[in-house]
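S.,

As promised, the D-glutamic acid run. Input:
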Amino acid sequence: MIGIFDSGVGGLTVVREVLKQLPNQPIIYFGDTARTPYGNKGPKTIIRYSQENTDFLLSKGASVIVIGCNTASAVAVEALREKHPDVPILEVITPAVSRAVAVTKNKKIGVIGTRATIASQIYTKKIQEIDSSIKVFSAACPLFVPLVEENWLTRPETKMIARRYLTDFKNVGIDTLILGCTHYPLLKEVISAKIGKRVVLVDSAEEVVKEITNYELRITNKEGDSKFYFSDLTEQVGKISARWLGGKVDLEETNFETK
Ligand code: DGL
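Predicted complex:
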């Protein structure tokens, strides 16, 4: 089984892509809604939470781990790989970087994400490892996550905030923008309207699922239903899950706890 974890509901955008690209692939999802958001936390905490989430998914039978969360991918992947050298652990950053580098023509790439993701500078490092002549411009957009969770996807307030966050990118003339956070694909319409239709938006959820297909052969257990676990199962989590996955799904609260 593929195990996907995220700091909360955001990783459901990765699940949505799995359903689209690999419709027969059952998954185990863990959303750490009790401790979300990760994006404003420090590396030590994010690594600890990510290790607990990974252990939980492995205990439920996952054989491949996908870190659905950009923040956890940015900060915790090395620690997780060190602890589980035999488990394939995929993250959402490398596939998005490869795509953005392939797409840019003017070698100006923008990256948006949470504070922790942007502070890690992981996107800049990975892009410039491939091509050091590419200029990378990045900005944290912390207000986007709550706006998406409130389903304020096209409200005037959201458009105003998007303009504020994206103006600098427009001024420097990027031709590619990486949506480096689970929630941002839901704002594609507003982001594209503000940044300009000619700027290519790279969706990290979409890219990581293309990567999963490479591991598909190693995932032997294709039987059974997908399972969705949350560390705090509120009504809002139920609503968002149904909205993003296009129908009601069975969700379970787990007694997984912070130690
Ligand atoms: N899932 C996080 C990410 O992709 C966003 C929400 C959070 O800050 O926890 O960075």
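The chain has a mean pLDDT of 93. The first helix runs from residue 12 to 21.

- D.
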